[in-house]
Amino acid sequence: MPTINESSLIEDNLTNDLHKLQEDEVIVNQQLDQILMRHCHVEAKLQSIRKVLPNVAVVKAETEKFRDMIHHTNILAEKVSAKVRQLDLARSRVCECQSRVNDILDLQLCCEGVATALENEDYEQGAAHVHRFLLMDQQLLEKTADDVSGDHSSVTSSLATLQQAANNLRQVVDQKFDEAVKGEDLASVERFFKIFPLLGMYNEGITKFCSYLAIKLQVTSQKNLKAALDTRITDKRASVIYADTLTLLFEGIARIIEVHQPIIETYYGPGRLLTCAGILQKECDNQVKKIVFEFMKHRAISRKVQLINEHLRKQGVEKLEPKDLDILLSELTLMHARAELYNKFLRRRVFNDIEISTTDEQHRASLKNDFETIMKNSELARSMQELLGAYLALERYFMEESINKAIGMDALDQDQQTSSMIDDTFFIVKKCVKRSISSGSIDGVCAVINMACGLLENELSSQLKSRLRQGYPAGYLDLAQAYNALQTSFQHGRIQTSDTELARLMFLAYLNNAETSIEYVETLSRNLKIDIEQAFPNMQTKEKGKIESCLAGMKNVTFTLRTVVDYGLEQLRSSAIKPRINPWVDSFLTINHEADEEEILRHETDESFVQTLVMNLDGLLQVFKNSLMESNYNALIGILTTEVTIRLEKVIFKSSFNKIGGTILDNEIRALSNYFTSSTSWTVRDKFIRLQQIATILSVDKVEDVTEFCATDSISWRLSSAEVKKILLLRTDFRQEDIKRLKI
Amino acid sequence: MEDYKFLFKVVLVGNAGVGKTCLVRRFTQGLFPPGQGATIGVDFMIKTVEVENEKIKLQIWDTAGQERFRSITQSYYRSAHALILVYDISSQPTFDCLPDWLREIEEYASNKVLRILVGNKIDREDREIPTHVGEDFAQRHGMYFLETSAKEAENVERLFMEIAAELMEQARCKELPRYEQNTTSINGKTTAIGDSNSCGCSRFT
């Protein structure tokens, strides 16, 4: 039986359903109303459609008529256009026919013309006739003649005659050209050169003409070389005579191309320069080989390179004077630079010619590639690579020996902070790299930069370091005395290396040398980058990468030099600073820090501990202030500050204080900190924070006051709570128990 | 800034025609270009590889083998981190020249440089240098040894990847003493880095 609860639940459900049904009914009623409302509208629409209906039938009939009309028109148009096409064809046939008739007429004319022209030795006229003949379609002519009359003997004979005449003419022109070359008859050479293309002999013409030019080139070049060999040593250009000879050769070729390219282009069309350049390059190779051979022989390059190699392996006895190589190095770079220039000129000309001769990209690329292959495999390229190799070997020796010399002749001037070797060394390095830039070879520049980095990192750095390794001689230092010693030793032409003063000055100068070198390397690297970018404006990405990577080697040089500077400063700390300042600071221990006011009054006229310390430090720093460059001097003050503060902290912990003693210390540390801060632009105040905090603790009135400091600014608080307690214990007027009880 | 942790310079040397350029091309571009012309001076390629999740930039200098380029190529020895000395296993003369190359390496390269001997062209049928001969030579001169084929892409990837890994490990071994040098006093003695074996990383086996 359902309970009352359940039945009420059912009742609820039923009520819900009823409500829902009622709502639905309302909605349905509304929808019905809407539909009924639209009835009117639909009726009206139907009415209007009924009215239009008869018109539609009319439209359909009209449309069909129209369609038929279009169809007819279409057929008509096609018929008309077919006729037009026929007409067109007919017209073109007439044209063709006309030209063939012309051809046949011309054929006769040419046939007779050639004969008379040959007789009169008027080769231009003859060639013009042959040229006309060659433009005709011979097979077609024969066929036409056949079709028209069935008798083509006259045409055939004409053709044969012309063929014969063409061959004759070719032979004659060939022969005449050779004769003209032999007879050095420039006018005839040019005359026949222009006839070749008319006879369809493009390649023969170019080859013959360029070979002729090559011979001219050979003659001039040999004359130039002979003149070069006969040049007196006293001549102004004697030192670069081979570079001059090479330059004359390149200029000669450039002139030939400059003069003849327009002629070739006019008579042979564009795209002939590659062949031309190939032929001229062959002769250029021959001449370069001869010039370089004489250069190598007379400048004794192989012997010099051999001497250098022997010297490098420490076998040779004979040594080359680097200065003597200077001019030779210039000549070598000049020769290489000229070849690069020539190469660029030829490439630009040939590539331009290729560009206008064909539009086919692939064909262009293959032609350009042909040119590159010619140049890459040329004797010129080989010779220049050999010259560059010799140049680099000599340049390396020059740089190394000159740097060694600069180091060997090192001198220190009184008013200079660095010794002479630094300026000298960097002058040499700069000179060498700049010279390599003038060679026009990226690989050459990279190699010289690499060598320079190696020399700076090895020769220079090790020289600097070995001097610093000897250390800074301890003992009393009077600078004026040291300079006097230095001066007299120079005047007497002897350097007393045993002289401590001199050794000290040299030590400081070398520390400055190292610091200055870093600056110089950075400047050099920056300037070279600019120079190289100016000298090679069209570098490819790969070449740029090479240069960048090699210049990055300079950065490694600065790293090495930085360690040398650090090493020198460390030497200074251990030999000049530590032993000097320790006794000064230690005198703190001899002072009574528990004095009462009376005693203090009694000693007021005495100098305080800090006054004495500052005076001593000032004296010490005066010694370095003029001799060290600013950055080194600042670094020295940094070291000095560290050493003084550490030592002072140590002695404070060994002393005992009362309130007055603590207050005095507080003032003294403030004074010391001010002294250091005022003597350098670097921030040294930070190094005093611990000491100042120690002094603050030592000057408190009551033990409890300490908690205030520890709590207030904990970020800059540098002392641990154990240290604070240890410091408080130094106050003899405080009780141990109070300190122990302190909660910090 | 480029995104890499280490930069190493690798220089390839050896007689002309032993396949140095092909090895580099195979590794950097995955190509084996036949009929390659002789290299002029030095060529230069970069490839960034990843070893143990660290990006390593390898700067590979491909040198010309011919004698007349020697002045150029020698200048790259000093700053090289690794030197790959290549010979052709099918050509006795290229193997016979190795001592000359070693002499040059001694003369110009840093004594810490990683040296690898590579016998290339193992795809060739006409082998003249047996593997163990190359191996012996490498061992006698304290070099790593590997035989490769640029044509068949054999061991090429491995060659460069192991060089990268080895150099990275060396650099890490060096990092520690260097750091100490900066914090404690500099006593003038440079910390001996020693040869790579001290790092316990002998990879080329």
Descriptors for this entry?
heterodimer; A: 744 residues; mainly alpha; 0% strand; flat; B: 205 residues; alpha/beta; Rossmann fold; six-stranded mixed sheet; 6 helices; transport (chain A); membrane (chain A); Conserved oligomeric Golgi complex subunit 4 (chain A)
Can you give a write-up of this model?
Chain A: Residues 162-469 form the COG4 transport protein middle alpha-helical bundle domain. Chain A: This is Conserved oligomeric Golgi complex subunit 4. Chain A: It holds the Pfam family COG4_C. Chain A: It is found in: Golgi apparatus membrane. Chain A: Belongs to the COG4 family. Chain B: It is a lipid-anchor. The complex is a heterodimer of chains A (744) and B (205). Chain A is mainly alpha-helical. Chain A has 25 helices and no strands. Chain A has helices at residues 4-119, 123-135, 138-149, 153-182, 186-195, 202-230, 241-268, 273-298, 301-312, 322-357, 361-376, 379-408, 420-438, 442-469, 479-491, 500-535, 541-586, 597-602, 609-625, 630-654, 659-679, 689-698, 706-712, 721-728, 736-741. In chain A, helix 3 runs antiparallel to helix 4 (153-182), helix 4 packs antiparallel against helix 5 and helix 7 runs antiparallel to helix 8 (273-298). Chain A is flat, with a radius of gyration of 52 Å. The two termini of chain A are 83 Å apart. By secondary structure, chain B is α/β, with parallel strands linked by helices. Chain B has a domain at 6-72 and 100-175: Rossmann fold (3-Layer(aba) Sandwich), CATH 3.40.50. Chain B is 34% helix and 22% strand. Chain B has helices at residues 20-29, 70-74, 92-96, 98-108, 131-140, 156-183, and strands spanning 6-13, 42-51, 54-63, 82-88, 114-120, 144-147. A six-stranded mixed β-sheet of chain B has the order 2-3-1-4-5-6, with helices on both faces. Chain B starts with 5 loop residues before the first strand and ends in a 22-residue tail after the last helix. Mean pLDDT of chain B is 85; it is low at 177-202. The chains are: A mainly alpha (744), B alpha/beta (205).
